[in-house]
Amino acid sequence: xxxxxxxxxxxxxKLSEQLPDFSEREAHIMRLLRITSDRLSSRQNExxxxxxxxxxxxxxxxxxxxxxxxxxxxxxxxxxxxxTRTSATRLSDEMVGRGWIERSMNEKDRRQIVLKLxxxxxxxIKEVQPYMNKGYAPLWKDFSNEEFxxxxxxxxxxxTSLGV
Length: 164
What we know:
single chain, three-stranded antiparallel β-sheet, 7 helices
């Protein structure tokens, strides 16, 4: 891929000249967000390929890990990851198959299934996380704490505008 920010700016400028209601500034931000998101996702998946997983599976196991008692309801997993229930079930099936989580009945409501992290799942997280941190470090090395805070605030504001 040979994305060029200069090329994008020129293309958007032409669009704004030819389409009177075209918002060059907003389109620029939307394209940058999309390209950045795609590239970050690709980078993460490239790092995780070493372990034979993708970012969805990685975030799924981390979601179980951060939950109280390392337990989560499948519906909560779906919500945290912004996935359909079917996709969350597929991820749960894969984590069970890899021995990272076990399914059990909720003691308080036997109609519910609970996903619980296993020792193997916890060990996997502790093995992979340092590798991921090292892989991400070059991406963020030039950001100050204030810039991180500002970026988080601004992206949160966009999500809120989208109704998330």
